[in-house]
Write a structure and sequence with these properties.
Blueprint: H1 42-50, E1 57-61, E2 68-70, E3 74-79, E4 83-88
Antiparallel strand pairs: 1-2, 3-4
Length: 95
């Protein structure tokens, strides 16, 4: 270990638990990929980018009225023994 000469009058640093390097190692996906305060994570940004914005007519049929459902009105419900059932949001009420 190379020691740098120190100035007279300054204390000589002692080796011990206080002087260990506490900084984190930056790996392949290290600290540079961590979002700053107020920023979204990489996963959250990708999720927002993939979200469909267009309100289009889906191929799902409402179980109550039998009409096709627009994307923004779609309410999927999982029913035991039956699988997925789809309703208009206005037609679905929780019992």
């Amino acid at each position: 270990m190379y020691r740098v000469p120190h100035c007279p009058g300054t204390p000589i640093p002692q080796e011990g638990p206080d002087t260990y390097n506490t900084s984190r190692n930056i790996g392949e996906r290290g600290l540079e990929s961590m979002p700053k305060k107020g920023e979204l994570s990489k996963t959250a940004r990708a999720s927002l980018a993939n979200r469909e914005e267009l309100n289009h007519l889906t191929n799902r049929i409402c179980s109550k009225c039998g009409e096709a459902i627009m994307l923004k009105e779609l309410q999927p419900v999982k029913v035991v023994g039956k699988g997925m059932v789809y309703y208009h949001k206005s037609h679905f009420n929780v019992q």
